[in-house]
Design a protein that fits this description.
Blueprint (H helix, E strand, L loop, with lengths): L18 H10 L3 H14 L3 E3 L15 H8 L3 H7 L6 H8 L7 H10 L27 H10 L5 H12 L11 H8 L3 H12 L11 H9 L7 H9 L1 H5 L3 H8 L3 H12 L21 E6 L2 E6 L7 E3 L1 H9 L10 H36 L1 H6 L9 H8 L3 H8 L3 E4 L2 E4 L7 E2 L8 E2 H14 L8 H10 L6 H10 L5 H4 L4
Parallel strand pairs: 2-5
Antiparallel strand pairs: 1-4, 2-3, 5-6, 7-8
């Protein structure tokens, strides 16, 4: 078999992920706090960039002039077209736009971005009262600290104290022991029987029942602390916890040979026990959500406003513009000051363009959502329409992956509440008569409201909910109702029933 060397010419087109494009995609999916961190980092690392707020009083922003500005004035939509094409141009074209050639008029290009800002409205002019962060300034006692303090007050041998520390360190937020006691006892160097005794001591700590390994054990420990003791309560917890969960009071009464009323009275006492002893020590710090965008209704129209409050506004430093115009002599390594400044300038300009493109894209996506979901913004969740990423992508002429990145971890403040942008994308539920479908979130809201209004002594079964939804022209299977009910955190009808 003979080998030979050949030269072939093949024409093809493919997208190369340049570092600039990767940065733009990364910025697109960041939330406000993450974006602010990136901008502040760039301000520290790139001397070309400076914050517009730092401009001294009386110093005007540079005026737009030169070749780029002349073309911008001749064609006002040229900048918008460049921004919209930032994610769709082949890599070779992007390098020409961003990196540029040696004879590219960088000064005019810089001035264009210093003089132009995002076309979308800004929240800077809206003076909203910010939420209080006083909760973040306080430190609460944790369950581990509370139990460790009690352990330090107990007279135990060193190995027993070590086991107690291991038990406390392996508790869940609810106060249950999540590790295997046998393994902990081996690590502490004591016998399993002795470990059980130490664990009983912790069970008696405040809150009572801490360190339990099951719900039954937790309730049994608390029941033994009742004064006076309640033997019937202890028997129900020990042998009939499953029947109690199903509210089978008649079965419990028959099995224990007591009256129905006595079982009801015992059940009332059990309901006063704490199934999660660590609950009172769970942190309840308020986590505030700062919306990326606001939607207001003015007259009969919805107005979209970007939230840029606290976001640094960037511009190119005039000082380095002068260096770029004057520098030209190479140093000992053959590099010129102009080469360094141009490299940092390319990075700065691309960052500014990427931020502008991010803001415009968020604005366009929100605008498309508002147009498609107008009934939701006017009437609420039950009027949410089915919508997929492809719908918005086709409306604004972008790829579905771009829409997915834009809507992740971005929140919008609306007249009916604050929602993540992803919330508006829902699967559809068919209408019984074949008319317009309904969004799955709207169906969940209907189910939630039905359960809220039900008779506690006769709760709605999943099949009954199916029938009620069918009366509202919503065709849905019983298993789908069960799935939505689980997603909403609603118990089954048997567990929701309140006999007492």
């Amino acid at each position: 078999m003979a080998f030979e060397i050949k030269q072939t010419l093949k024409l093809g087109q493919h997208l190369v992920m340049t570092p600039q494009l990767q940065q733009a995609i990364k910025l697109l999916q960041l939330n406000r706090m993450e974006l602010a961190e990136v901008i502040n980092q760039e301000l520290m690392e790139n001397p070309i960039l400076e914050e517009l707020a730092d401009v001294p009083d009386g110093e005007a922003a540079p005026s737009a002039e030169g070749e780029a500005d002349a073309q911008s004035q001749a064609d006002p939509e040229s900048e918008q077209r460049r921004d919209e094409d930032a994610f769709s141009k082949p890599a070779a074209q992007e390098d020409q736009v961003v990196a540029g050639k040696d004879d590219f008029n960088w000064e005019s290009y810089v001035e264009e971005f210093n003089s132009n800002s995002s076309s979308a409205p800004s929240m800077r002019e809206i003076n909203e009262d910010l939420p209080s962060f006083e909760n973040a300034l306080t430190k609460t006692t944790s369950l581990e600290d509370h139990l460790s303090w009690q352990l330090s007050m107990t007279q135990l041998a060193p190995q027993e104290r070590k086991l107690g520390e291991l038990v406390i360190g392996n508790l869940s937020d609810d106060g249950y022991l999540t590790a295997n006691l046998e393994e902990i006892s081996r690590e502490a160097g004591i016998e399993l029987e002795d470990a059980e005794e130490v664990l009983k001591i912790i069970h008696n700590f405040d809150p009572v029942g801490t360190g339990s390994r099951s719900l039954q054990e937790c309730l049994s420990i608390q029941a033994r602390f009742m004064v006076p003791r309640q033997p019937l309560v202890e028997k129900i917890i020990e042998s009939h916890l499953g029947d109690l969960e199903r509210k089978n009071y008649q079965g419990i009464a028959k099995a224990l040979g007591v009256t129905y009323d006595r079982v009801v009275q015992a059940t009332k006492l059990i309901m006063e026990l704490e199934p999660k002893p660590g609950r009172s020590f769970m942190t309840n710090d308020t986590h505030y959500i700062t919306p990326d965008i606001y939607v207001y209704k003015l007259a009969d129209e919805f107005v979209i406003v970007l939230n840029e409050d606290g976001m640094p506004k960037l511009r190119i430093s005039p000082y380095y513009k002068n260096i770029l115009a004057q520098a030209g002599k190479p140093d000992a390594s053959g590099k010129t000051t102009k080469d360094y400044v141009q490299d940092k300038l390319r990075s700065a300009v691309w960052l500014i363009r990427s931020i502008h493109n991010r803001q415009k894209t968020i604005y366009k996506v929100t605008d498309a959502i508002v147009k498609r979901q107008r009934d939701f913004f006017e009437k609420g969740v039950q009027h949410l329409k089915p919508m997929i990423l492809k719908d918005v992508a086709s409306d604004i002429g972008m790829h579905e992956s771009t829409i997915s990145r834009v809507t992740t971890n971005k929140y919008v403040h609306t007249p009916v509440g604050i929602f993540e942008l992803k919330y508006f994308f829902n699967s559809s539920i068919s209408a019984a008569d074949g008319t317009d479908a309904l969004a799955s979130e709207a169906v969940k809201e209907k189910i939630r409201q039905m359960v809220q209004k039900e008779d506690p002594k006769n709760p709605l079964s999943d099949q009954k909910i199916v029938e009620l939804l069918r009366n509202d022209n919503i065709e849905i299977a019983r298993r789908t109702v069960a799935k939505y009910r689980d997603m909403l955190g609603i118990l089954s009808s048997g567990k929701r029933k309140k006999v007492i």
